Amino acid sequence: MSTQRVLPRSFYARGTLSVARDLLGMHLARAHERGVQVGRIVEVEAYKGPDDLAAHSSKGRTRRTEVMFGPPGHAYVYLIYGFWHCLNVVTAKDGVPHAVLIRALEPVSGIDDTTHGPGLLCRALDIDRSLNGADLLGDALWIERPARFVRPRVVRSTRIGVDYAGDWAHKPWRFFDRDSPYVSTVSVAARRRALSQGIVTRG
After folding, report:
1. Quick check: pTM over 0.90?
2. Count of domains in the chain?
């Protein structure tokens, strides 16, 4: 962990769409007793509750969403379908329930399992509800600027799986690295082809 490269609280305490875009190319790190796993962030989605009907916080301040209403720079981890955990970073200012979902990672070091989806990356990095509320400036889970940062070519689109949210489902608040084969919507064939051609992490 390089404390000089760890993203400061001020990075998260900004407009959520700006944070979402700027997270692309950063490194997510998870520390265990067995070492540190690192992945390059290549896909995210922004959520801006309570008005955004796709956000969990649209239902108000609950035990589940309490972390989203807290200070920025903390992890919001929840369970879906009784099986998959999803990792979000809390953004904006204290009391404003905004967050950015980390949807996909490119493995950098210490990662052996697949990471091209929000549930998959949490499984690969052993991220679960025990990390809900974790400070992203702490020593268990953090995000840092890579030593050799390569700015990605960013594409934006509508979010995935939020058709229930009415007009909010059409917000172009999903951002991804157009050159990464690890983006969740890349086909299996295209991903295999890219990886066989030597597409590797650039950060």
Report:
1. yes
2. 1
